[in-house]
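Can you make up a polypeptide sequence alongside its tokenized fold?
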Amino acid sequence: MRTDELDFELPAELIAQVPADRRDEARLLHYRRADALLAHRRFSDLPSLLRGGDLLVFNDSRVIPARFALRKQGGGLVEGLFIDVEPDGHWRVMLRNAGPRAAGRSMTFADAPSIVAQVVRQLEDGQYLLKVNAEEAPLDLLQRLGRMPLPPYIRRQRLHDRRDALDRERYQTVYARLAGSIAAPTAGLHFTPALLTALEAAGVRSARVTLHVGLGTFKPVTADTLEAHTMHSEAYSISAEAAEALNAAKREGRRIVAVGTTVARVLESQPPGAAFAPREGRTGIFIHPPYQWRHVDALITNFHLPRSTLIALVAAFVGLPQQRQIYREAIAHRYRFFSYGDAMLAE
């Protein structure tokens, strides 16, 4: 499949820069695959749209405040994105404006000049290893100094922004638990505690898995064909409790509803025809048309960037012509797009 088949033109003003005033006030485009029916709802309508017995599966990964800023000795600013910690304690990061021959260079944290970060070496794909001379654990230091890793199409000031506190709260699901993601599983941003209670009262059941969102989820597809794109793998886990809930839904013929593409990837990474089992692993699954779905019966997701692995997954779920129709409808009705934007339910 050609990557340009996932292109579409989006007016810039439809790219959401801030979230809805209330999480569940976001709009919800409802699509039924059985009869191609499109309807315009609010996310708060979800309890009336799902069926009693449906199993909503959430990704409970917590977003790290992974963005940080360093200063060169000459005063220039280097923007960093934390990815992971290596076994030897070095930070694996992406750096912007580090300049040529960065290896060996020492810089200081812009908001903590006493903390020095030395570039150990440059890796592939714009990644670097840093040696950071801080007594705090990396996640503790980032919790204190970092900013939320908003995608670049959400515009913020370089060092600090008046909306930083808002982003700390709203670029995080209300049920986030295990820190490890460097991007939010955005379909879950629309849920509130009250909405979760209403769903439970309507007979909708829930389970939680964990996928730590990394480079694999948001790396753009630059190859001419989807088949030529290679996904980075991402860590995930399924608890014994979640496995039993999933198996019970399968056994009883109840629908499994994935809250987001990350959950869909976790579930579809499990072997076909086998029971779900507790496990920890990594997945590099890339779901795109044509794809035979194994486990997911319905999908809640935001509206995604063109030529992304995320929109490819949506096209695999509803069909490429249907995905184009849905996105045309969303644009015509002025839905808000991308991470802080509105959502769709496809069933």
About this structure: DSSP finds nine helices and 17 strands in the chain. The first strand starts at residue 27 and ends at 32.
